[in-house]
Amino acid sequence: MLQLSIAMPVLLVLSMLVLGQALERAYYFWVAEPLPEGLWEQVRDFLACQDKFKAHSLCRNARGVMSEALAALLEDEHQDPESLVENFQLYRQRMQMSLTRRIGLFGTASFISPLIGLLGTVLGIIRAFHDLAVAGAGGPAVVAAGISEALVTTAAGIGVAVVSTVLYNFFTLTARHRLNTVDLWVLEMARLIKYPKG
After folding, report:
1. How buried is 150 (Cβ within 10 angstroms: 0-12 exposed, 13-18 middle, 19+ buried)?
2. CB atoms within 10 A of CB 14
3. What is the rounded radius of gyration, in angstroms, for the C-alpha atoms of the chain?
4. What is the rounded CA–CA span in Å between residue 79 and residue 197?
5. What residue ranges of the chain have pLDDT lower than 50?
6. What's the distance, Cα to Cα, between the start and end of the chain in Å?
7. Residues 5, 149: contact at Cβ < 8 Å?
8. Which of 4, 11, 29, 166 is the most buried (most CB within 10 A)?
9. CB neighbours of 3 closer than 8 A, spacing ≥ 6?
10. How high is the pLDDT of residue 81?
């Protein structure tokens, strides 16, 4: 009869934490705080026509950190493009903190889950040898339960690690792409805005 190692409940809890965090991050990225690409296209068109007032009004009526950043940058009277980009850094840091919030859980899970699986493997081997000693005779049937326990735990640990690694890379690269995108927006805004001479 197959008996699961004590490592299996730990891996189960860890996998549930990973799944819950993945759902939370997916909701934040694409529902709560999506990248306002449509807003930026309208703002860029207004700035190209030198209509800074309409661009500012549009940003003020939108929601999100990037919309707030665009509105603040359009409201200030910058003397040069460098000051506009510098003032954006505060909002960029806020966005980075929000985008990478608790993503480290995926990295931690990808590292420790194989170790937990290895612990289950060791416990399964110990059980197999214990059963062999108690039986006093060899044979596949004596050690089968312990070996099965070891293999199941190892497979579960590797599975959690693979999924966690994929999620970590996905959300990290998505956050980096989003930050690079908004950096380009601000640089383009700095190019489109007309600054006072002198």
Report:
1. buried
2. 21
3. 27
4. 8
5. 1-2
6. 85
7. yes
8. 11
9. 127, 145, 149
10. 87
